[in-house]
């Protein structure tokens, strides 16, 4: 498994497996505690796994957690997504840095997103399953949502949004969301 640091987001990593393919399909390891540990992360810190299924054009994000935040491992297990991470940690050397990835079920790469970073994605295929492994229980009271189309973020979403949750459609701007977090 190859590990690459994400230059635009301090502390973020991309884990790329080495698949074994033959006429049956492929096999690959998508999580390896020793590899995760080799970059200074605690593999035992991840306590909850979730999956979402989206249809082409669905946009989910931009989301983060207030308080202690939430670190996560994100992987597209089926289909293809355009994945976005924005560093919102004021003390980070990459504060307001943005990184974009195309994650797919064909490659099975996993993205580590540090706590304090906003995350969102858009489904690029008719069906896209996205798997998450997070480091603390979900608490809806800590949900923070930022407008996906905030000009300050200038995210180049590849498709017009087909479907979004009401929460995502009505999300405040980055400046408003940050102000709400401070109070």
TrEMBL record:
Isomerase is among the record's keywords: yes
Signal peptide: none
Superkingdom per UniProt: Bacteria
Record-linked Pfam families: dTDP_sugar_isom (PF00908)
CDD domains the UniProt entry points to: cupin_RmlC
Chain intervals for the UniProt region annotation (Disordered): 164-183
Gene3D superfamilies in the cross-refs: Jelly Rolls
Keywords: Isomerase
Family label: Belongs to the dTDP-4-dehydrorhamnose 3,5-epimerase family.
PANTHER family given in the database record: DTDP-6-DEOXY-D-GLUCOSE-3,5 EPIMERASE, THYMIDINE DIPHOSPHO-4-KETO-RHAMNOSE 3,5-EPIMERASE
Protein name, per record: dTDP-4-dehydrorhamnose 3,5-epimerase family protein
């Amino acid at each position: 498994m190859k590990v690459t640091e994400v230059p635009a987001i301090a502390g973020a990593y991309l884990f790329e497996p080495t698949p074994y393919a033959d006429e049956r399909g492929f096999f690959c390891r998508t999580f390896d505690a020793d590899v995760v540990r080799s970059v200074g992360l605690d593999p035992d810190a991840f306590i909850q796994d979730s999956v979402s299924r989206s249809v082409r054009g669905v946009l989910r994000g931009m989301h983060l957690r207030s308080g202690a935040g939430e670190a996560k491992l994100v992987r597209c297990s089926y289909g293809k997504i355009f994945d976005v991470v924005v560093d919102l940690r004021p003390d980070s050397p990459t504060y307001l840095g943005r990184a974009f990835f195309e994650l797919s079920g064909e490659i099975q790469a996993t993205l580590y997103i540090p706590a304090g970073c906003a995350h969102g994605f858009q489904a690029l295929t008719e069906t896209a399953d996205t798997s998450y492994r997070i480091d603390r229980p979900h608490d809806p009271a800590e949900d923070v949502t930022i407008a996906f189309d905030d000009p300050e973020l200038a995210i180049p979403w590849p498709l017009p949004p087909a479907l979004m949750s009401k929460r995502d459609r009505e999300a405040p701007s980055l400046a408003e969301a940050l102000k709400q977090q401070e109070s």
